[in-house]
Write a sequence for this structure.
C-alpha cells in the first residue's frame, strides 16, 4: 500500500487544482481563445503615430499573446490590459518573431521600451510597478517611428477598443 501512504500529501494539491478548474469553468467571464478570438484590430495612436492593435483583456488571451505567429503586420501590435497597476513581466515562449514591448502607466504615458527575442524564456520586466498597458510591436517599431518616453497613448481610442472587446 505505498500509494495510500503518499495520498494524504498529494490529495490536497489535487483537490485544490480540481476546485480551481471547476471555478474557472463556471465563471462566465472565462473565455477560451478558440471560442473567443480577439483578432479584431483597432485603430490606435501613440505619440502621434497611428497603428492597429489587437486588445487582450482576458487572462487566457494575455497568456497566449502573439505565440505561434510567424509574422506581425507592419504598424500592427497587441495591447495587454491590466485592471490594476502591476510590474509587468513577459517572456517569449513559443513566440517566433522579435518584438519590442512598451510599458504604459494608467494615464497612457510610455515609461520604457524593451526588446524581446524569439523563444527566449527569460522574463522581460517593467522597471516600474505602476504599469496598466503593455504594447508589443515588431522589433524596432518604437525607434523607427520616433515613439519614445514620455509619448502618450490616445486614451479615448484605447478605452473604446477595451469596451468593444469586453462587450463581446
Amino acid at each position: 500500500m505505498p500509494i495510500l501512504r503518499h495520498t494524504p500529501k498529494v490529495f490536497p494539491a489535487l483537490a485544490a487544482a480540481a476546485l480551481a478548474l471547476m471555478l474557472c469553468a463556471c465563471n462566465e467571464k472565462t473565455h477560451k481563445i478558440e471560442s473567443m478570438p480577439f483578432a479584431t484590430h483597432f485603430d490606435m495612436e501613440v505619440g502621434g503615430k497611428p497603428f492597429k492593435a489587437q486588445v487582450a483583456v482576458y487572462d487566457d488571451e494575455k497568456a497566449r499573446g502573439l505565440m505561434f505567429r510567424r509574422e506581425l503586420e507592419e504598424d500592427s501590435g497587441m495591447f495587454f490590459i491590466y485592471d490594476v497597476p502591476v510590474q509587468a513581466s513577459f517572456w517569449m515562449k513559443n513566440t517566433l518573431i522579435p518584438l519590442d514591448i512598451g510599458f504604459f502607466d494608467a494615464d497612457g504615458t510610455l515609461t520604457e521600451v524593451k526588446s524581446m527575442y524569439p523563444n527566449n524564456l527569460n522574463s522581460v520586466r517593467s522597471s516600474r510597478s505602476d504599469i496598466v498597458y503593455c504594447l508589443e510591436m515588431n522589433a524596432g517599431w518604437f525607434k523607427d517611428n520616433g515613439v519614445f518616453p514620455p509619448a502618450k497613448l490616445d486614451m479615448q481610442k484605447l478605452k473604446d477598443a477595451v469596451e468593444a472587446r469586453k462587450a463581446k
The beta strands are 42-46, 49-56, 76-86, 89-90, 99-105, 110-116, 124-125, 131-138. Confidence is low (pLDDT under 50) at residues 1-37. The chain has two domains: 1-30, 42-167.
